[in-house]
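Review form for a predicted model. The reviewer records the input and the model, then writes brief findings.
Reviewer: anonymous (R2)
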Amino acid sequence: MAAAPLMPRSASPSLLALKQAGLDYLLFDEETARALRAAARPQPAPKQSPPARPPAPKTTQRPAPHGPASQAARPAAPRPPAAPALEAWPARWRERLDKTRPAPVLWVYWELGRDLLGPPEVKRRECVQGLLRELSHPPGTHSFWPPALPDADGNEAAAPALFWEGARMLRGRVALVFGSKALEGIDPPPRLSGAGPFRQFRHRGLLLVTLPDLEDIARKTRPGEPVGGTALREFLRATLAPFA
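Model under review:
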């Protein structure tokens, strides 16, 4: 490349002009450029960090975030079952939703639908009533929403899509899930499936709290003691304090 047409050597351009044009390394030898820099910059300029190098392309360490290799390495979480429109709900579920008052704390156990539609089993009723008395929360704190409702023939089948949509419409914030069958009936996240009692996980806007089966709680309650024992009462009080 010819240097003369761009800027003659005798012109003695300023260092600023050279830098702006980006031509100092073309027009002058190293000695002349050094002299020009020294003349135009009597005091040393603050040290500047060198420009950051662009990251090297990654080809083998990590696959593209949306490519097939990424999907194979990290399978996508299964989508929750879609809830039908309220008009398409079975009549019993719509009636139950209409009769259920919104509340931050939802009680969930497998036999709940059976107890709500017919006379509740005595031991379960006494167990629930005793726990509510022990907690002594203000009215409107608790409500009951089942994972399943028996059909006309008395058969029960879990309806997780209806459960989650109903919990959302009831403005639930925490669900007390009693027993493993109730937990599986609401289609829990994989990390919570098969979990034992006294564990907490957030899922789909709810704090899921796993608890023993109501029959186990009733069986372990000693005369004169709180339902389920002092440990269960204190656990529930501490867990529900932000919601009551």
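Findings: Residues 122-135 form the longest helix (14 residues).
Further findings: The chain is about 35% helix and 10% strand.
Recommendation: see findings above.
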